[in-house]
Design a protein that fits this description.
The chain has 99 residues and is mainly alpha-helical. It has one domain (4-81). Helices cover 69% and strands 0% of the residues. It has helices at 4-32, 39-51, 58-83. Helix 2 packs across helix 3 (58-83). It starts with a helix and ends in a 16-residue tail after the last helix.
Length: 99
């Protein structure tokens, strides 16, 4: 059974991680004058192709690619939040010992 408290904690962690990653990415873009990644747009276009959408307007592609990043971060956080209580005995890094 999924614990709502673990799910909420995971969602909060995913939101915080996504915000930090976005801030770091935008700062890097500003400091190094680099363009944004093209990968999210390619993923959105591929999802649209799989869904049978032929012509997806550029503003929609841009908006969906940004939402994809949030969905990815929030979803990963929620998944971790749900799985973590079930994995108390798992070592999380090399060299860690669990009793």
């Amino acid at each position: 059974m999924i614990d709502g408290k673990s799910l909420a904690r995971g969602l909060a962690a995913g939101a915080a991680g996504t915000a930090a990653l976005n801030a770091a990415s935008y700062a890097d873009m500003a400091l190094r004058a680099r363009p944004p990644s093209k990968v999210p747009r390619r993923v959105v276009k591929e999802f649209a192709r799989w869904a049978g959408v032929r012509n997806l307007e550029q503003p929609r592609v841009q908006g969906l690619s940004m939402l994809l990043g949030y969905a990815d971060g929030f979803g990963a956080g929620m998944l971790f939040g749900v799985l973590r209580p079930r994995m108390r005995g798992v070592a999380w890094y090399v060299g860690e010992t669990r009793e």
